[in-house]
Amino acid sequence: MTKEELLQRCKNHDAQAFDALIRMYQNKIINIAYGMLQDREDAYDVAQEVFVKLYRKIESFTGSAALDTWIYRITVNASLDELRKRGRRVRTVPLQAQSDAEEEYTLPIADETSSPENVILSNERRREILGAISRLSEKYRSVLILREFEDLDYEQIAQALGISVGTVKSRLSRAREKLRNILEK
Amino acid sequence: MDCSEVKQYLSEYVDGCLPNELAAQLEAHLKDCAHCRAELAAYQSLRMQIRALKLENTDDFVWKGIEEKPSVLPLYKKTWMRCLGAAAACFVLVIGVLAGTQNGALKPTVEENVAKEEMASVPRMARTAEVPYADQTFDISESGATPFGHENVKQNGAAAEVYTTRVLTFSVREQAREAFLRTLSGLRMEGVDEPTIINASDLDKLLQIDGVEVIKERLEETSSAVRQGKIVIEYENRF
User: Fold this and answer.
1) Which of A111, B17, B76, B185 is 20 to 30 A from residue B134's alpha carbon, by CA?
2) What residues of A are in contact with residue B63 (Cβ under 8 Å)?
3) Could you tell me which of A83, A164, A180, A170 has the C-alpha nearest to residue A132?
4) How far is the C-alpha of B71 from the C-alpha of B73, rounded, in Å?
C-alpha cells in the first residue's frame, strides 16, 4: 500500500489503515519527542497526543505538503506544548539510568566523512548529552533533533518548522556550537 | 579561507551540504590547519553521539485510542483560555500604546534602525506594544501604516531605544492572505543570534503547510523579539 492509499483509507476512518499509519510513524514521532523532552515516558505521552491529532485532522490534510512534514510539524508542536506545560521548571535528566538507558547503544555510521565505527555511548555520556540538549532553547533543539534523529535535510526541516532554509542552517550551526560549549564546561 | 570562515561553514560541511566550491576551499584549509581538523573531528564526534541517543525500539508503544485521551482539552476550555489570552494580550497592548503615546513613540515611518548591544539591559517591556492574536483576528497593520515604530529617547538620563507597535486589526482568513503577504514581505529581522528573513516566497511555503498557524507563530516571534529588543527591523514600505 502506498502512502497515498494509506492516507486515503485513513481519511475514510479505516481502523486497520490507521494502525498501519501508527506503526509506520511511531518510532519517528517518539524519537522526535524524546529528543525534545529527553524523557521516554513523556515522549510516549506526546506520541499519544500526536496520533489523536492525526486522527482528528487527517481528513483536513490536503496533501499539498508532504505527509511526513505535516506529522513532524505536529510532533514538534506537541513536544513544545509539553515543554511549555512544564513551564520554566528545570527538568534535569535523572541521575539513575532510565530503563531505556540500561543497555548501551550502537549506531551504524552512514556518513562518508566519519570513520566506519559504531558509536557506543556509556550511560553517563548519554545522560550528559541529553542534559546538554535539554539546556538548548526550543528553536535550537528543534532543528538539531530533526536533523540528527530523523536525518531530515535543510529544506525538510524548514518546512516542518515553518522557517527559512537560511534560518535552519544558522540555527543548526549555533545549536551544535552551543552544545559543544555546554559539554566542554 | 581562514579559520573563522571554516568555523562558519563547519556545520554545513559536516552535513554534506556545503557547495562544492566552498567545500574544496575548506578542505584545502584543513590540510594545513591542525586546529580546524580538531574542530571538524569534534563536530563529527558530537554528531554521531547525538544520533546514538535515538531509541531503537519503541515497539511497546500502544495507542490508547481516541476515547482515552483525557489530555485533550475540551472545546469550552480551549475557548476560555483563548479568550483569556486575547484579553491579556489586549491589556499589554493598551499599556504599550499608552506608554508609547506618552513618549510620542508612534512615528509614521521607520527607515532603518540599529539595535545597540549596550542598551539591551534597558527595560522596555512597558513601552512595547504586543501584537495580540486570537482565533480569527490578528493585529498588525493596515495598508500604508507603519507596523513598527522606533525612537531613541532618554530614560533616566541614559539613552534608550523604544520599540512600539502601531496596531490595527484585520481578519486572518484566507482572503486576508494577500494583505499579509503585502504587509510582511520586505520585513527583515536581523537577530543577535541569526537573521530571519520573511518574504513572500517563504510565506507561500509556510502557508502550504498549515496556513494561519504559521502566521501566528511568525508574528509571535516577531513580537517577542521586538519586546526583547534583540532585533533590528527594517521595513520597506511597498504600498
Assistant:
1) B185
2) 22, 26, 47-48, 51
3) A180
4) 6
d(CA B167, CA B140): 5
Chain B CB within 8 Å of residue A109 CB: yes
Q: Give tens-digit pLDDT for A113-132.
A: 444 346 777 888 888 999 99
The phi and psi torsions of A164 (rounded to 5 degrees) equal: -80, 160
A148 contacts chain B (CB < 8 A): yes
Q: In whole angstroms, what is the distance from residue B209 CA to residue A61 CA?
A: 9
Cell of B40: 571538524
pTM value is 0.56
In what helix (H) or strand (E) does residue A56 lie, and over which residues does it extend? Answer: helix A40-57
Å between A173 CA and nearest CA of chain B: 5
C-alpha distance from B205 to closest chain A C-alpha (Å): 7
Phi, psi for residue A107 in degrees, rounded to 5: -140, 125
Contact between A183 and B46 using a beta-carbon 8 Å cutoff: yes
Phi, psi values for residue A84, rounded to 5° = -70, -30
Which among B78, B69, B56, B54 has a CA at the least distance from the CA of A45?
Answer: B69
Any residues with CB less than 8 A from the CB of B80 and at least 6 apart, and which?
none
The answer to whether the beta carbons of residues A136 and A167 sit under 8 Å apart is no
Is-contact B108 B146, C-beta < 8 A? yes
Cell reading at A125 = 555520556
| Per-residue confidence (pLDDT) for residue B209, from 0 to 100 | 46
Cβ of B218 within 8 Å of Cβ of A112? The answer is no
Residues in chain A with CB shorter than 8 Å from the CB of B219 are: none
More confident residue, A111 or A62: A62
Between chain A and chain B, the number of residue pairs with CB atoms below 8 A apart is 147
B185: buried, middle or exposed (CB in 10 Å: 19+, 13-18, 0-12)? middle
pLDDT of residue B140: 35
Q: Which residue of A has its CA nearest to B45?
A: A114
Q: B232 pairs with which residues across the strands?
A: B190
